[in-house]
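WARN  no MSA supplied for this record, continuing single-sequence
INFO  ligand: pyridoxal-5'-phosphate
INFO  echoing inputs
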Amino acid sequence: MLDLSNFPGAKYYWHNGKILDWDSYAIHAMAHVAHYGSSVFEGIRAYETPRGPAIFRLKEHIDRFFYSASAINMEVPYPHDEISETCRMVVRKNQLNSAYIRPNLFYGYGNLGLTPHACPVNLTVGCWEWGAYLGEESLRNGVHTLLMPWKRFHPSQINASVKLGGLYVQSNIFATEARRLGYNEAVFLNIEDRISEGPGENIIIVKNGKLTTNDKAESVLEGITRTSIMTMAKNLGYETEIAPISVEDFLTADEAFFTGTAAEVTPITKITDSRDRNQTQEEWKTYQLGDGKPGKITLELAHLYQDIVRGKVAEYDHWLTYVYDTPEEAKSNLNGRVKALDPENV
Ligand SMILES: Cc1ncc(COP(=O)(O)O)c(C=O)c1O
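INFO  complex generated
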């Protein structure tokens, strides 16, 4: 029996064309992926809107899914539009108003040599309700990050902008380590000793009203949230640039924040510098950004983002894919459980 107590999930998930009960599992312990991390995944969110749940930037996520698969020459057994439709369908099937959606392609059972020549490619799409990744508190008050001496892999080693399961071992280890040491999240360097990103989040800094973020040449996964926020900032009239971020730029920024599908827009208010491996934790220096509270521009963008994903900003409606064809269908399928579907809102 699975222990679902910490992760109850949802009612159902989709696997290779079939709907399975959440507590059933369809993968053998000798599947290739369980040994070598040979998977490709996406992380997507659907939010409650006045027209029922809507998926944020679905097309861009599925485009990246295919791009990541191409990086390991994995053949995707379903076309783009069917995978997009499956994402919509699993949210409907689970009758969720909001959801985190996880498509996952992986090499299954076939052979256990390193080259998965006899392993079928499986596709699973699951979804469940998932609150703020770093906690509700983090969105309001910001997070304390640990700048670590570890360097995220370099683009000369492997494409840094793809979501391959095995690549996340580095993120798993250092996100866990930062939390064990009492911080909310880790920040990686790149090989050139500049700032890379968080284990599952990009970083944007603000200095003198200008927003700066780095790109894949700096060992980051170029996130869809990051790109959306930079577009929104430009549309609001802020100066924006894609450029390397030095450690000094980060530690002396007026404001800084994480972006990511899971983390959304999370202000960074404190940074502890643990780069010097000869120092003890007591000797690490902590830097406060601004007055130690989430910055003004950070909050403006965070609020706008939350409004956009909830379908409140017509200008950005094209970023949303509605899960139901009509608001009426949403209402009847969700048994009127949608707060945002009050008649005056529709
Ligand atoms: C390593 C890493 N960086 C950044 C991000 C943010 O990307 P996105 O905004 O597309 O979710 C993610 C999450 O997918 C990630 O895993």
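Residues 43, 171, 197, 200-202, 221, 223-226, 259-261 surround pyridoxal-5'-phosphate (CB under 6 Å).
INFO  checksum written, moving to next record
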